[in-house]
Amino acid sequence: MLPHPFVRVPRHSIFLPPSQREPLLESHGPLGTLWVGLGLGAFYIALIWLNTLLGFVLTPLFIIPITWLMDRVKGRRATAEERPVEMR
Q1: Contact, 6 vs 25, CB < 8 A?
Q2: pLDDT value for 71
């Protein structure tokens, strides 16, 4: 089987030359393009939805413990201010 006339294949190549029956450019037509477009659209919609859900779920997981920490710090400052000056 001879390689395509415009393709130069080195003698020590590990890749086989394309056969004459295979086209050099694969084309799947307009339905394949539409199918891939619909698949990519669904993928990106799902990705945006997932990122939105992660924002709604993960934000309280960080904010609630931070408010607990802020309340503790505020409580310690309040007790420190109530002590007499000699105790400091």
Answers
A1: no
A2: 92
- Residue 64 is assigned to a structural domain of this protein: yes
Count of the separate structural domains present in the chain:
1
| pTM, two decimal places | 0.46
At 69, list the tokens: 């920490």
Among 21-25, 38-42, 57-61, the range scoring the smallest mean pLDDT is 21-25
Which domain covers residue 68, as residue numbers?
50-77
Centroid of chain to Cα 64: 26
H runs (alpha helix) in the chain: 29-82
Contact 3, 20 (CB under 8 A): no
Nearest-angstrom CA–CA distance, 44 and 69: 37
Conformational region of residue 12, where left means phi above 0, alpha means psi within -120 to 50, and beta covers everything else: alpha
Number of neighbours of residue 4 by Cβ within 10 angstroms: 13
